[in-house]
Amino acid sequence: MDATTDKDPLVQEQIYNALCYLGESEPEEILNSCDEYLRQHDKLAYPHRVIILKAMETVVKNNIALLDKSTAKEVIRDWQQAASNVLVAVGQRFINKVMEEALTKFQPGILPHYFVMQTFANLSVSNGE
């Protein structure tokens, strides 16, 4: 997964495709490996983090019926936290765009998801002066 930091988009795409391919035969192993890698590399730049998150999303979507309930719950929570962290990182430079996109998650009469609220809170803290 260290190759995700390669600047060549073709290499990044190959890493994404390899993770997805491996995820077809061993979805829980790949999801756990990606999760562990992201935890160990918490300073990984967001473009590279996104590659891994997208692969995790694809593996979950393609194998949701095969995942153990506890694994799925844990992965979804971790994935949502990582995605929130990516938005906060991007928001340090492009706050208006991130806020515009995040506000689309608010629907009248429906409580917003926990991670949407957490993202707003973290955006305000990281951009406070």
Plain-language structure description:
This protein is mostly helical and 129 residues long. The chain is built from six helices and no strands. It has one domain (9-127). The chain has helices spanning 9-25, 27-40, 46-63, 69-91, 95-103, 114-126.
Write the layout of secondary structure elements.
Layout (H helix, E strand, L loop, with lengths): L8 H17 L1 H14 L5 H18 L5 H23 L3 H9 L10 H13 L3
Helix pairs in contact: 1-2, 1-3, 2-3, 2-4, 3-4, 4-5, 4-6
Which short descriptors sum up this protein?
mainly alpha, 129 residues
Provide a concise account of the structure shown:
Residues 19-127 form the MROH2B-like N-terminal HEAT-repeats domain. It holds the Pfam family HEAT_MROH2B_1st. With 129 residues, the chain is mostly helical.
Tell me, rounded to a whole number, the average pLDDT: 85
**Overall tally of domains:** 1
What would the principal axes of the Cα set say about the shape? globular
Global Rg: 16 Å
Helical stretch tally: 6
Q: What share of the residues lie within helices?
A: over 70%
Beta-strand segment tally:
0
Low-confidence stretches: none
- For the record, give the distance between the C-alpha atoms at the N and C termini, rounded to a whole number: 36 Å
Helix/strand-derived class?
mainly alpha
Order of helices and strands: HHHHHH
The largest pleated sheet is described as:
none
Strand percentage, roughly?
under 5%
